[in-house]
Amino acid sequence: MVAKINVGSSLYGALAYNGEKINEGQGRLLASHKIFDGGTGRLDVRRAAEDFSRCMPAQVRTAKPVIHISLNPHPDDRLTDTELTAIAEEYLARLGYGGQPYAVFKHEDIDRHHLHIVTLCVDETGRKIGDSFIHRRSKNITRALEQEYGLHTAERKRQTQAEPLRAVDAAAGDVKRQVGNVLKGISGRYKFQTLGEYRALLSLYNLTVEECRGEVRGREYRGFFYSATDDRGEKVGTPLKASRFGKRYGYEAFERWCAASKEQIKERKLGDMTKATAIAALCRTKDRAEFIALLKAKGVDVVLRETDTGRIYGATFIDHRTGCVLNGSRLGKELSANALQEHFAPPTAGIPLPIALSQQSDTADVPTQASLYDNTASDGLGLFTTDTHGVDAEEEAFMREMQRRKKRKKKNRKL
Q1: What pTM value is reported for the model?
Q2: Helices (H), 269-366
């Protein structure tokens, strides 16, 4: 995100420039402080100028009391008006102008939507707000906001774009190189807390991971094997040990990454943005495919796990904006698997729910060679809590209930 700061003397000119655009339908007023806002998204330029003028004395020593800032997110960032408003207000607060009168405008006259902020650099007594190293501080603030909101970097000096991640194609050959490219591409960019969430992320790239355990010379070990999959999620080819790609992709590094991610998600409340986006999409449609498409357009992939009959028994949301991978149940009951199933296909009274087939572990088909991992590895791709084995609690409960129903049916047939 690039911030451009201009200091000037014409308050009316700055307001008129933004007001004309939004009043012609090329944007909207997102937020204001100490300035009248009718809630229409439009601006009464004259009234706004009067409100600004009341917040500073008629005579000020500063020749240029007006600050006009433009905030420009990366074109690939898909942000709602609520998210843009939060970013603008936090930017102003950190820069030292959060208590000043201001107006935040969203410009939509070009494809790259961006923000303009008009505020004052003098207080009600005419005293100037400190602006030492303002450009340097602004750059540090935008960098921090990029990290916190999961935004793309948008420096004026563009870095060479890396080759986009591609799904693994086993038929194309050199599977090890393809798998390595995917692992390297997602390493450190996503936060997840269970093996199930990690698998959901990998599934976007025709890849899966399995845990293996064993004992060598009296020492217990736990490792990972990665496998390419086809478009149906079925494994193809020979599994590859994590050690072939480096320690950062092994089980122990995975656990360390998990613990760190859990803290970050909780402290920064990174799931809030994903939840808001998902709820908004859910309110707009009752169609499953349309729901998935709406989220994808906002930069969120949703992986639904379904039975052979199409019943949803698991849901994971992958937010590429914040880099968070979250099971639906973490975001709230309304986004859990049961709630989504009911929303998209309400069960008919009197008809029993379809039986869910339990997924068999593939560990037995995986070579059991020892793969020891160095505990001192500091960077990892793990993001998995040590007290769970990668299965969503709601998903487990659903599977157990379906198995009990299946047993009862068999018993009734025998009787």
Answers
A1: 0.49
A2: 271-284, 288-297, 328-331, 337-344
